């Protein structure tokens, strides 16, 4: 079950409680807001076969363009190193050359067996509406950070790359902040641990020896 806000006596009403997984769900809603500003919203409906075919062709086009761009950057980098007489910098510093690996760098679509939202649909749907709104607020002098939860569509590489390309500031969720804070506290506590029992005994013995000395 999902925890929701409800009034007293409504916790058992059918209009309040819902199952976590609902196969009969026909749409998903995405909205955004800032203090004193209401942003755009987007509604996801089940994807049709025609939309799936168009998305597949678009993803293949994006992968092809990315591969051509990376290969051009690699060629330009080699030319720049030759001009600086640093063509062997990769050998001297044991660095790996820029190489496009389709198995790790290609964009792929996620599992949508239950008509879920993957990174591609999130990027082409909600983000294409939210990003212009964020830029309009920045033109007014307002500071805006995009904060999302840890849904797979929000963490997908195609979504993150789009936000980086559009220079949108992102804010990580509270769960990640608490995890990183607890890690830092644990590391600091280990550094400030007291001496072990053996070290304390040695210190006491040294004090006794100092006292017995004439």
Outline the structure in words:
The strands form 2 sheets. A two-stranded antiparallel sheet has the order 1-2. The protein has a two-stranded parallel sheet with strand order 3-4. The chain has helices at residues 49-83, 89-92, 102-105, 119-139, 152-155, 157-165, 174-191, 197-212, and strands at residues 28-34, 37-44, 146-147, 170-171. By secondary structure, it is mainly alpha-helical. It has 2 domains: 1-47 and 113-187, no CATH class; 49-111. Helices cover 52% and strands 9% of the residues. The chain is flat, with a radius of gyration of 28 Å. It contains 8 helices and 4 strands.
Topology, element by element:
Blueprint: E1 28-34, E2 37-44, H1 49-83, H2 89-92, H3 102-105, H4 119-139, E3 146-147, H5 152-155, H6 157-165, E4 170-171, H7 174-191, H8 197-212
Parallel strand pairs: 3-4
Antiparallel strand pairs: 1-2
Helix pairs in contact: 4-6
């Amino acid at each position: 079950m999902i925890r929701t806000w409800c009034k007293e006596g409504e916790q058992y009403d059918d209009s309040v409680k819902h199952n976590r997984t609902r196969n009969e769900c026909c749409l998903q809603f995405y909205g955004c807001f800032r203090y004193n500003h209401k942003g755009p919203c987007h509604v996801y409906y089940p994807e049709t076969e025609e939309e799936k075919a168009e998305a597949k062709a678009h993803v293949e086009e994006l992968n092809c363009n990315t591969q051509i761009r990376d290969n051009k950057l690699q060629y330009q980098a080699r030319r720049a190193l030759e001009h600086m007489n640093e063509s062997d910098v990769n050998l001297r510093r044991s660095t790996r050359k820029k190489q496009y690996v389709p198995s790790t760098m290609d964009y792929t679509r996620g599992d949508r067996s239950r008509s879920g939202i993957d990174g591609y649909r999130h990027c082409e749907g909600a983000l294409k509406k939210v990003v212009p709104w964020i830029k309009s607020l920045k033109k007014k002098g307002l500071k805006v950070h995009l904060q999302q939860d840890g849904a797979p569509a929000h963490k997908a590489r195609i979504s993150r790359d789009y936000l980086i390309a559009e220079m949108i500031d992102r804010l990580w969720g509270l769960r990640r902040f608490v995890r990183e804070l607890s890690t830092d506290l644990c590391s600091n506590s280990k550094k400030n641990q007291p001496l072990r029992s053996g070290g304390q005994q040695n210190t006491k013995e040294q004090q006794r020896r100092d006292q017995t000395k004439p």
